[in-house]
Automatic annotation (TrEMBL):
Non-catalytic subunit of the N-acetylglucosamine-1-phosphotransferase complex, an enzyme that catalyzes the formation of mannose 6-phosphate (M6P) markers on high mannose type oligosaccharides in the Golgi apparatus. Binds and presents the high mannose glycans of the acceptor to the catalytic alpha and beta subunits (GNPTAB). Enhances the rate of N-acetylglucosamine-1-phosphate transfer to the oligosaccharides of acid hydrolase acceptors. Pfam families: PRKCSH (PF07915). It comes from Piprites chloris. GO terms for cellular component: extracellular region; Golgi apparatus. GO terms for molecular function: transferase activity. PANTHER family: N-ACETYLGLUCOSAMINE-1-PHOSPHOTRANSFERASE SUBUNIT GAMMA, N-LINKED OLIGOSACCHARIDE PROCESSING. SUPFAM superfamilies: Mannose 6-phosphate receptor domain. InterPro entries: DMAP1-bd (IPR010506), Gtb1-like (IPR039794), Man6P_isomerase_rcpt-bd_dom_sf (IPR009011), MRH_dom (IPR044865), OS9-like_dom (IPR012913). Its main location: Golgi. Residues 10-112 form the MRH domain. This is N-acetylglucosamine-1-phosphotransferase subunit gamma.
Length: 245
């Protein structure tokens, strides 16, 4: 995120409302402490630093997630960053069960460019963003496609956390990367084509004509599999005097 906000790291800011004391430690966590003499007074974590909230290509807040358990989910908190004369936690609410909202005032976000995402990215990611802008301008991608590219850029920069499905997809891509280049794909195709030729010759030797059903999947992998099955049948059946073509 914005480098000038890192000076807040290692500091904590408190806010007391009714019998509760809230404490926000930027880039660390948010906690809640019940100010009472009850024997079972609550004291726990409302969220741990997780990712940024980005709106209109601008940092607008910090998400603290994976806090203490709350029924079937965990507590989480969104911290809104607003301009203020001093660093202070100004307001706390709970808009929905176990989801909290904090307002943090700081002079560090008062400059109109202080929360722009673009300047915080590496040159490579900035170029990727520029290319996406050009594609959108040339109407080669839709607004939805543009937003998808931006989300991928933010995830790659570590500003947003990728979902579990996205992580699984990345792992899958890593495993199948060897087939992604044109050269390797062509080589694989040639090998499968040679295998098909050999299998067809073997079928011809046994007087069996192979015809692929046009309504079926006739990809190289599929045809190779069908031929291999047919050849296996021929070889296994060659012991029988009554071989049918």
């Amino acid at each position: 995120g914005p480098a000038h906000l890192f000076r807040l790291a290692g500091k904590c800011f408190s806010f007391v409302e009714s019998t509760y004391k809230y404490e926000f430690c930027p880039f660390h966590n948010v906690t809640q402490h019940e100010q009472t003499f009850r024997w079972n007074a609550y004291s726990g974590i409302l969220g741990i630093w997780h990712e940024w909230e980005i709106n209109n290509n601008t940092f607008v807040g910090m998400w603290m997630r994976e806090g203490d358990s709350c029924e079937t989910k965990t507590r989480q908190t969104k911290v809104h960053l607003v301009c203020g004369k001093s660093n202070k936690l100004a307001y706390v609410s709970e808009p929905s069960t176990c989801v909290y909202s904090l307002t943090f005032e700081t002079p560090l976000v008062c400059h109109p460019h202080s929360l722009l995402v673009y300047p915080t990215l590496t040159e490579a990611l900035q170029r990727k963003w520029d290319e996406a802008e050009q594609l959108l301008y040339d109407e080669l991608i839709t607004d939805q496609g543009y937003k998808k590219i931006l989300k991928e850029i933010f995830e790659e920069a570590g500003l947003l956390k990728a979902t579990e499905e996205k992580e699984a997809e990345k792992q899958s891509k890593k495993i199948s990367l060897e087939f992604k280049t044109v050269e390797k794909c062509s080589k694989e195709y040639e090998q499968l084509s040679e295998e098909i030729k050999k299998l067809k010759v073997l079928l011809d030797q046994h007087g069996i004509a192979y015809k692929a059903n046009s309504a079926e999947n006739t990809s190289v992998e599929y045809v190779s599999h069908k031929l291999a099955t047919a050849v296996t049948t021929v070889i296994n059946g060659s012991k029988d005097e009554h071989l049918h073509g």
